[in-house]
Write a structure and sequence with these properties.
mainly alpha; 10 helices
Length: about 240
């Protein structure tokens, strides 16, 4: 029997709100059974975006994709993602703080040292967010978190949808996190972009599905959340 997963142990705290790290969520999924990570790997280059909020969302998504590629032990994709992360970080003005991590990701992937790759991906996310906070771009930093969470949730629901388990579904039980992201997005009226409005709408759809108190999250909810996050994920990686 897989042990019960406590979502609060898998996370980083942002302003007293727990944001689960994709790496931890994927690790927890591994404990629940064998996952064919290769089918979730994304290696397409993605669009060249110019709006900074969109770059931030995409960066969070790409870092999450890095963790998926590590789970699949796909060295080529990891190396591409290392490059991609650097390009995106430069696009929002935090390239300098990321360069050493991107190099370390690529070197570790070459050696197939997956623990080091994971560690550097974690550091990348932290460095990006720290660098943004230092220049008072907290809003972009929050969008990096949001992009990562959306991609992580898309893959989580896809995996659990294929092989339903109550413990896997329980990883979705994060209503406080949704409230946090909703509040943050409301505080970004200057980012008047279609994708931001789509994400706001998606969070409104997802919230009642997972905010169900002590009840178990059923398979149809997992499927629905997967449809919503997949749709948003497409929006994040597609040029308008």
């Amino acid at each position: 029997m897989p042990q019960h997963i406590n979502i609060n142990q898998l996370s980083t705290t942002v302003e007293d709100v727990v944001v689960p790290l994709p790496n931890e969520i994927f690790g927890a999924l591994n404990k629940l059974g064998t996952v064919n990570w290769r089918e979730h790997v994304r290696s397409d280059k993605g669009p060249n975006l110019t709006e900074r909020p969109r770059i931030a969302l995409l960066l969070g998504t790409v870092i999450a994709d890095g963790f998926i590629a590590v789970q699949a032990e796909d060295a080529e994709t990891v190396k591409n993602i290392g490059q991609r992360v650097l390009t995106l970080a430069k696009g929002i003005g935090v390239g300098n703080s990321i360069t050493p991590h991107a190099k370390a990701i690529i070197e570790a992937a070459d050696k197939r040292n997956w623990n080091n790759v994971r560690r550097e991906l974690d550091r990348t996310q932290n460095s990006v967010q720290q660098a943004m906070n230092e220049v008072h771009d907290e809003k972009l930093s929050q969008l990096v978190s949001l992009g990562g969470w959306l991609r992580g949730t898309e893959v989580l629901t896809s995996v659990v949808n294929e092989h339903f388990s109550a413990d896997g579904a329980e990883l979705l039980h994060q209503p406080d996190l949704l409230s946090y992201f909703q509040k943050r997005l409301q505080g970004m009226p200057e980012f008047d972009l279609p994708i931001i409005h789509e994400i706001e709408g998606a969070l409104v759809e997802v919230k009642p599905l997972i905010d169900i108190g002590d009840r178990r999250i059923p398979p149809e909810t997992v499927k629905k959340v997967n449809e919503i996050t997949t749709r948003i994920g497409q929006g994040i990686v597609t040029k308008d």
